[in-house]
Amino acid sequence: MIDIFTFEKNLEKGDLGNCYLFCGIDELLIKENIRALIKKVINPNFMDLNYMKFDGSSLESFDPVINACETLPFMSEKKVVLVYRASFFGEDKNKLSTEFKTIHSYLKNLPKHCILIFYYVFKSKRDKPGRKIYSVDKDICVVKADKVKGKQLENKVQEFFYERGKDIKKLDLRIFCSLMNENNLSIIENEVEKLCCYTYGKNIEREDMKKMFLRSGDEDIFDLVNAISDKKIKDALYMLNELMYKGYKISYILSMVERQFNLLFKIKICLEERITKEEIMKELSIKSEYGYSIMVKQSKKFTISQLKRAVVLCLNTEKRIKSLSIDEKTEMELLIINTTA
């Protein structure tokens, strides 16, 4: 099994196999590399004759794929057959699951004139290659499209901006990448598109990114806790009403406020023990450096005992809401008042 970057290097060198299985959470990254492979081996003038694709989620039998592979290419050394969303490589039962042994057997004897490509998209971040994928790994090239991180992510995101005629400073690019909680390139590209539309006709500024990507529920919770820490009860109650107006339930708001106070409590302790920023972010799973800096500033407005008390008040409020028939909004308002005391 190789990663996506090893595949890209092999492709540049022309080191190609004749059967690939791409798997991972990022469908856009998978599709981009498949397109690059197809472009490498097929003349665009004969694309229609030498490239066939099948929807793996709706295939009734593997026979059409075998027939396509056995057919000789036209005016070309190679032809490509793609089976996209090949769900039969997962553990779920489907129409081709019973044929998997036959499919695996055929892959060992694939004709040299054909490059057969499968791709299988994981359902969630927690998914990993299963036994079927590992069983074919020794016979075909399995490419795991894992998270793109660090400099590689920045380069990819920069390409997205360039494609849309937008330039972005290196530091701003780094900040943009740190604000992306998802590591899925298709989601990140959508966010790039939004930012480019938002800044149409002008250069991208850091303030634009803050307005675009920090006006989320998390940012509203930051503001709510900030108002509490500044003892601005009126502002805090107004923000509570705003969150409810946006459709957030009291149970969610309470859990987020509790989570925020808990994080601030842990950050406060870590800072007092002189633990480094990198260690704190790793320990507390804080992905955004910008978000971290906001929370550090917020934690400095409280003492450790105040934060501990705030967490206890949140837990008591949660217990009261779950066990008693009381007005949830009133309980949340009392929590805000008590945490500012």
UniProtKB/TrEMBL annotation:
GO cellular component terms listed in the entry, alphabetical order: DNA polymerase III complex
Broad enzyme group: transferase
InterPro entries (UniProt xref): DNA_pol3_clamp-load_cplx_C (IPR008921), DNA_pol3_delta-like_C (IPR048466), DNA_pol3_delta_N (IPR010372), DNA_polIII_delta (IPR005790), P-loop_NTPase (IPR027417)
TM stretches of this protein: none
All copies of domain DNA polymerase III delta N-terminal, residue ranges: 20-145
Signal peptide from the UniProt entry: none
EC number: 2.7.7.7
Keywords: DNA replication, DNA-directed DNA polymerase, Nucleotidyltransferase, Transferase
Gene3D superfamilies: 1.10.8.60, 1.20.272.10, P-loop containing nucleotide triphosphate hydrolases
Ranges of residues in domain DNA polymerase III delta subunit-like C-terminal: 219-338
Catalytic reaction equation(s): DNA(n) + a 2'-deoxyribonucleoside 5'-triphosphate = DNA(n+1) + diphosphate
One of the GO biological process terms: DNA-templated DNA replication
One Pfam family per UniProt: DNA_pol3_delta_C
GO molecular function: DNA binding; DNA-directed DNA polymerase activity
Family note: Belongs to the DNA polymerase HolA subunit family.
Protein's name according to its UniProt entry: DNA polymerase III subunit delta
Species assigned in the record: Clostridium ragsdalei P11
